[in-house]
Every structure is written in structure tokens, then in C-alpha cells.
Design goal:
Structural class: mainly alpha
CATH superfamily: Glycerol uptake facilitator protein
Shape: globular
Radius of gyration: 17 Å
CATH topology: Glycerol uptake facilitator protein
Number of strands: 0
Oligomer: single chain
Helix content: 55-70%
Number of domains: 1
CATH class: Mainly Alpha
């Protein structure tokens, strides 16, 4: 499979499964309504698992601009290939969120709370505190990238499209899925643990576009935090990795 297509499909599946578990557990009249944070954490983790299985052999399964940037900073991915990877991830994230809306459209229109509706698409802080909200996303993404780099090991060198693939797939689908579950269970309750710029931005754009009764605003004033925080966390993780190894 073409690596760019693989990134698109893998990210689409990841976001479909992730926003899907949020919709399934939150929207009115679904069979899973009222399910807890454990289900959401595992839903996102298993979404990563599936996305990595699909994209891993072809693209390395970055599925996340923070992963792409972190690997590039660490010298394990070619900067020249990063823009196409990130574009594919962004379009995949939008597609996955759109599919979730199409599947749950009846339930969205029966749900009256705007915050619940928005929460199935994108993240928000449990307590609004901008510096701490940014720190939450920085630390969560730092853990993701730092652990991925250490599990993958130093034998992976700078690679790009058409070469040996470095990414979440280099870690293995199950370990990286459990890593995401762990981050969600331990740190996710603060900001919803985007730890992935397109995971938040793509679905937030879809939320702003699709017709849903009672959906409210998309809270664009907060939207920069789950984009900037993960990028900063990835750069810090890769930089420290280079220093200590």
C-alpha cells in the first residue's frame, strides 16, 4: 500500500473507533450509554491497535503528527516526508469523525446537551486552566513519544517514504495500544488526552460543519491547546531521547 494512503486509512480507523466509543458511551439511547472511562480508554487504545495493524507495514503507522515530528527530531524520519504524512493524518481524522457522525446521527439529534455532543468529537479541559491544560497535553504526549522511541530502540535510523518504516508499527500494535490505554487511564481525565493534534482538530472541524440539533459552539478558543501541547511534548521527548542515548 502507498504509505500516504496507509496513513490516511490508519488514522481514519483510529478516529472512527475513538470518537465512536465516545459517541457510543455518551449519546442518548445507545445501548452503551453511561459506560465509564475504562471503556473509553480501551476504545481509544484498541483504535490505535487497529490503525497500527492496517498502516504499520506500509507507512510505519505514525497516525499522529506528534509522532511524525518526534521521529523527525530524533533523526528517525525524513523531514521532507513529514508534510504529506501530516496531511494524510489530518484528512483521515476528519473522515473518521465524519463517519462517526453518519453512524450516530439519530442519537446526536436526540441528545440535548451541547457539551456531551462536542465531547464525542473533540477534547476540552475538565477544569479550565490554560497553563495546566497545556502541561497536561505536553506530558501525555511526552510519555507517548518517549516510550515509543525507547521501545523501538536505537537501531532505527533516519527513514522516509519508500524505505524501512519507523513509527508506532515499529513498537508493535499491542504495546502501543496498551501505552495509549495507560495514558488515558492515568492522565486523560484532565483534558481528554488528545496527545495528537489531528485527533482533536479534524473532528472539531467536522463538529463545526455537520448539522446536529443542540450542538452549540466548537470552542475554537481552546482548539490551539490540543495542537500545540502535543507538538511541544513530542519535541521535548525526542530532544531528551537524543541527549540520554
Amino acid at each position: 500500500m502507498n504509505p500516504i494512503v496507509a496513513e490516511y486509512l490508519g488514522t481514519c480507523i483510529l478516529i472512527l473507533m475513538g470518537t465512536g466509543v465516545c459517541a457510543n458511551s455518551s449519546l442518548k439511547d445507545t445501548f452503551a450509554k453511561g459506560a465509564d472511562w475504562v471503556l473509553i480508554s480501551f476504545g481509544w487504545g484498541l483504535g490505535v491497535f487497529i490503525g497500527v495493524i492496517v498502516a504499520g507495514p506500509s507507512s510505519g503507522a505514525h497516525l499522529n503528527p506528534a509522532v511524525t515530528i518526534g521521529l523527525a527530531v530524533a533523526g528517525k524520519f525524513a523531514w521532507a516526508d513529514a508534510p504529506l504524512y501530516i496531511l494524510a493524518q489530518f484528512l483521515g481524522a476528519m473522515s473518521g469523525a465524519l463517519l462517526t457522525w453518519l453512524l450516530f446521527a439519530d442519537h446526536y439529534n436526540r441528545t440535548e446537551d451541547a457539551g456531551t455532543i462536542k465531547g464525542t468529537f473533540c477534547t476540552s479541559p475538565a477544569i479550565k486552566n490554560t497553563p495546566r491544560n497545556i502541561l497536561s497535553e505536553v506530558v501525555g504526549t511526552f510519555i507517548l513519544i518517549f516510550v515509543v522511541l525507547f521501545i523501538a530502540g536505537p537501531e532505527f535510523k533516519s527513514v522516509g517514504i519508500g524505505e524501512a518504516k519507523m513509527g508506532l508499527g515499529s513498537v508493535g500494535a499491542l504495546p502501543v495500544a496498551l501505552l495509549v490505554v495507560s495514558i488515558g487511564m492515568s492522565l486523560g481525565g484532565l483534558t481528554g488526552y488528545a496527545i495528537n493534534p489531528v485527533r482533536d482538530l479534524g473532528p472539531r472541524i467536522i463538529h463545526s460543519l455537520v448539522p446536529i440539533k443542540s450542538k452549540g459552539t466548537s470552542d475554537w478558543g481552546y482548539a490551539w491547546i490540543p495542537v500545540a501541547g502535543p507538538v511541544l511534548g513530542a519535541v521535548i521527548a525526542a530532544t531528551i531521547y537524543l541527549i540520554v542515548t
